Structures are given as C-alpha cells and as structure tokens.
Structure prediction request, 230 residues.
Amino acid sequence: MSTGNATGGIRMRTGVRGIAVAAAMVVALTGCGDGEGTEAVTGNDAVPGIAEGKQKVPPVTLDEAGMIKALPLSSELTHGTYGAGDPVLVQGAETAKACLDTLEVECPGVKTASKKDLALVGSSSDTGATFALFTFGTEEEAAAVLRTLEKHKKEFDGPSGRYTPVKVESGGADEWFAIERKDFVGVYMRIGTVLSYVITDDFGREGAEGAAQLQVGRLKVVAGGGDPDA
Prediction:
C-alpha cells in the first residue's frame, strides 16, 4: 500500500503515530479492499452488513469539532511549503447548497460540511490541494450521493474535456473512485457516514493518492476519539 512518499508529493509526518496505527488496523481488518479503486464499490457491499442483516458497529461519523480537526495540516504536505486558508465549517440550511456547489450533485441527507485549501507558497501555478468533508445522517444516504457523483463525473464532458477514471488506493475508505484530467486528480471517498472529497493540482497521481490516504487516516483517528497531531 502506497503512503504517498516525497517523490509523489505527499507523505504523512513521521510524528503522526496515531494515523499510522489506524492505517495498520485498517489493513488488518479489511485487507485494503480489492485495490480497484475506479468503482465506488471495491470488494464490499455499498453499505457492508446491512443487506445481510448482520449486526454492525456504529458507522464512522464526525461531530462539528471533528469536521475541522480531521482536515489535514499544511505541514503534512512535505513536497514544498504549503500555506493554508482558514478551514470553513457549514451547518444548517446552508449545508445542502455548499454540498451542491462543491460536488455539483444534490446531497439529500447532508448535515455538515467542512473545507480547507492548501496552496504551494511562492508558486505562480495552481499547485495545491483541496480537502472537503460532508457528514450525512446515515451510511445509505452517503453511499447514494457517492454513486450519483461517480455517475456524474464519468458522464461529464465540459470545455476542458472528459475525466479519465484512474486507480488509487484510498487507505481504508469503505467506497471510493478517482478521476484525472491533465494536472487535476480527484479522489472521492465514503468513510461511514462521511463523504470525503480530495482534489489536487500538479501533485501527480501518487501525490493525490497520498493526499487521500492522509485524509482517511486523520478522519479515522478523530472519529475514534484520538488526536492526529499528538
């Protein structure tokens, strides 16, 4: 499993031990899926266990504070120096519009949204990454929006051309898919009731994969009550 090393543009800071432990647990429990990554379902049912009527542990979710804490830090992007704008938290009636504006699809059941932009300091290019999180009331609602989003992205054909599905390893998401166009790579993931949107410019595919894994790692640590920056 790739962790997004420096040559790919991103890696996890060695001091973030909680994320590494969470990633190891994910590998042990899930075997990292089947590694396809270009379909929203990667070796699991859309919402594992529900169709079979199995008893489940509570799904991964985040409260309002966790929606901010789970967003990556600029210092965790190690290929250059990145500056970060202030993270944004959206709640209440504005959340559905924020989700629609960001994902470009309707988001039934969305509860809270957060977002952070990281940009390469001193660069005249668009090199950077955007991380966004959306919590839903149920796993089913989050899964349905991810499937709608995947269909929309695969069918989209704008002035800059179509997106190309690509394979990435998410590092422990329940469902995910990734797309690429020129220097842009987008990775879209569901972790429990949370949708994660990670887009990168000029990072390359490995760097985008590392960014996605970084986001999943932080999210799981925060959802489990830990501090990813300890």
Observations:
- The mean pLDDT is 80.
- The radius of gyration is 16 Å.
